[in-house]
Task: structure prediction
Amino acid sequence: MSARETHDYDVLVIGAGGAGLRAAIEASAAGAKVGVICKSLLGKAHTVMAEGGVAAALAHVDPKDSWKVHFRDTMLGGKLLNHWRMAQLHAQEAPERVRELERWGAVFDRTKDGRILQRNFGGHSAPRLAHVGDRTGLEMIRTLQDEGVHQGFDVFMECTVTKLLKDGDRVTGCFAYRRENGRFLLFRAKAIVLATGGIGKAYKVTSNSWEYTGDGHALAYEAGAELIDMEFVQFHPTGMVWPPGVMGILVTEAVRGEGGILRNSKGERFMEKYDPKRMELSTRDMVARAIYTEVKEGRGSPHGGAFLDISHKPADYVKKKLPSMYHQFKDLADVDITTTPMEVGPTTHYIMGGVRVEPDTGASTVPGLFAAGECAGGMHGANRLGGNSLSDLLVFGRRAGLGAAEYAKKTGPNPPLDDRQVQAAEREMLEPFERSGSSPYDVHQRLQECMHSLVGIFRVEEDMTAAIAEIGRLKEDAARVRVTGSREFNPGWHLAHDLRSMLVCSEAVARSALTRKESRGGHARLDHPNLDPEQGRRNTVVRRDGESMHVSQSPLPEMPAELRAIVDAELEAVKV
Amino acid sequence: MKEARFQVYRGDAKAGKLQEYTVAVEEGMVVLDAIHRIQAKDAPDLAVRWNCKAAKCGSCSAEVNGKPKLMCKTRLDDLPLEEPVVVKPMKTFPVVKDLVCDVSWNFEVNKRIPKFTPRKDREWRWMQEDIDRVQEYRKCIECFLCQNVCHVLREHGEKPGFAGPRFLVRVAGLETHPMDAGNRTKLLKDEMGIGYCNITKCCTEVCPEDIHITDNAIIPLKERVVDEHYDPVMKVIRLFTGGSNKKEG
Result:
């Protein structure tokens, strides 16, 4: 083995979105030597796309809001499949995490009395989302980035991790390459935090960027960690449907939070049929299925969506509160949203499932491996409420950073990396240049079609069985894809690897979805349309068994009586 | 279906040429869509940066028909398609490959700016109108198009003595924050080279976020530097008040 560039860290964070940066800041503050690896340039991670706000019971707009109300909303939104301890920590700690961002320089919109302003969102029973117009994610990532720059951790921009390396059970490092020049890199680390985000690029219509290929899920799975509840994929109700190039791009829920109304082609405010109480501010799973159903039954807009209208609000107000939506529609679709309704439809947005973690520390089932943010599972149950992901990545990014730093302190020096594992990882990356199979772009396109049409918003057994068979064929094709050109910034080569991650995640989604024979939150089955209380007491668990994927169910952790009482109580009784 | 011709820079810092591709055009398509089609069909190794596809991340900066643009926001129906569309990487930064530049210098500049330094003598309350301007500065998506067109950088390359408009905007966001207690005027003058800017407003013209970089960020900072470092009256006042005059009220 030739000498390779090798780096040593106490804590290595993979991913530099909100969760990764928050973890890195905390681990550094705890005294660990920290490295961060990210696929893009710093500050471009998907968090930058988050728009509407960060959910935290600051009670600035509704004084009756509290962590208990937030906890209850989150559990009910997740159809009680959430890990109660995660939902509790999240609701209790989110306000402090938001105030902390303010102390690091974030500039949130203000209430009339000069405090952080909060807006309504679906499923939240109080105006709870701290925000900056509709560019909250940008504010958050820039704040974390600028705070992080002075923490002294190293950032490896535009690098992809392809394999976790182990010594026995324990993770000891990883194999990576620089996207710019294709050179290989080795990292030795006492603890690794996965913060790689979601899997949206496995689907045809998605709000996610190219980075969202489920790398963390796949790395963890291959290293032997358990993934839970992978069947729960969130289709955001409102993505752009036209023009074709922007299909799937997010239209923030803040449009509805600020009073936007949904109508079908007949001009009917159709949410009256689906959720008359909460209307447009129902949970995302409900609204997405409602729009999908309206379109399917022939009441869609010209480009196959629903109309979302905010034009009844004053134009200046719309431009002030939703500036980036105003520009997005004006620039990309020639639509002035202050006078004309938008056309919107469901888009793959978020995965609730992910790496199974200890709520307090983010530790996975593999020693030395931690996870936070979207790639971790449990927090959101069967459906995530809008605004809860930005708070999730702050709360659990911090906890995973701390958990990893403490683990690193207790761990002895790193054993040398295993040469055989390193060489296998290297071979895997070089092989595509020597093959004669199809293009990775073709395989990717087929995977996206498969997931979109067979494991989408509504699911049936025969579709999912067909999807699993197709994923099997795609795995074989992916193992034969051909890459042309050099190792220098070669997107075809990058995709050839990312495909492997997407295939692991797609298989996990399809197999888990087939296993859960009920409809709950983001998982809707036409052949099992109702909630099944029995299955509602179980998580779906996926883990690797040799070369095949093993799916089982495990009982939900028991919720303590005092928390159960909050969930069971009437809203008025909690909101005091 | 309508077709359009694209001439895309292929190569690295040492050598390269414009390569022509033909792309099927659909309604509402942007330049980045065309680049992706070329990747999927003709040139799988064509290097390009992108993330959000919605003008929010500032990754896909390039020069389209000689004009600095975000490719995700540049619609084909705004371009004369009877001619080939020429797409080149940003000129100010060294090319890595094809449309990808080495912009790492910007991240190094950023590290030298002292972070937000909260005051301790005031409650965390302020009015929306106190931060409208701060929020304008903070809209920056770091596409580096302003750095690319700034003639100080474009004609002379990256220089240790000039930080460029992006980072003057960042400092403006810190200096005008109602709770910031830091003072970065010496840094602006001595290390960030604010004096090099002669207000040609090229940066403002290309900003995809419509930040009034020159009028709202650079000129007020220049005034602040002059007030503090060259104005004899202010020097005397400071002598008696014993501190910075940077915050009013």
User: Anything to note?
Assistant: The longest helix of chain B spans residues 213-229.
